Predict the 3D structure of the following.
Amino acid sequence: MMRLRSVQEKDLSQILKLARELDSYNLPYDRAFLRNLLRVSVRSFQGKVPKEKAKYLFVIEDESSEEIFGTSLIVAKQGTRASPHIYFEKSGGTLRFGATKNGPTEIGGLILKKKYRGRKEKFGKQLSWVRFLYMALHPERFEKKILAEFLPPLKKGKESFFWEAFGGRFTGLSYHEADRLSIYTKKFVFDLFPRGAIRLKFLPKKIRSLLGKVSPEAVPACRMLRKIGFRPNGRIEPFDGGPYYEAERTKISVIQKAKKSRYSRQEEGPRRGKSLFLIERKGKVFGGVGTVEDVLKLGKGEAVIGIPWE
């Protein structure tokens, strides 16, 4: 059986292998970073980390082989005094640099091994939606606005067209160097990026055509989020030029439809029928798709939340 659950520190080696596929800002291929992320995530699920530092990493695994083949992440607050959320506001024919120290919650870190993609079980959808079920279970841990970032089309080798035409000229760093450095500090961005309105006409036509566009690989995930309430917010990521999508937490359809209850016996559980369930017990969560009977095989919980599965 395939099971969704909160990450554990013992999962580090498998998470490191998965991160190599994405190597993103939120889930980089960096053992030290990931070791700390797992520690923070475990404590976050236990309610022992303040919102400004909390992160929640979910995994999906094959219980029989204990293979972890996917991840998804919630960053409870992306944009704090210690690490501001930065962006470009795209308006008309200009870009304007912006930053906030009181940012939204961000979702990211969605990885699924290739052999599990396009399956009837919709593992990618499970990994995406489980984050919203957890938000419905603990709304007080998250911001009112939920943010999602999508990569634009990139060059071979995962280099950024936009960064080479813009950011690289001001910083002298490669896209990968800047992206990795920004995990630890954004001071170089504030020191070196220009202020004021930047006229798009000064950028090459090809670069302008890619700003705010979603890469072909990210289109399915983007389409999934649009269906549940996410929309472009007019801002782009300042390193690669990819779009930011946003939704009000309480208006996300998965959260609106989620049903929460406590149970100890089958008749007290969620309604019958196939659903995506999330169960919480002693600071850990686990779940999956199935009926009440399937969920009960995973174990009893202090709380359970579910949504009908299509």
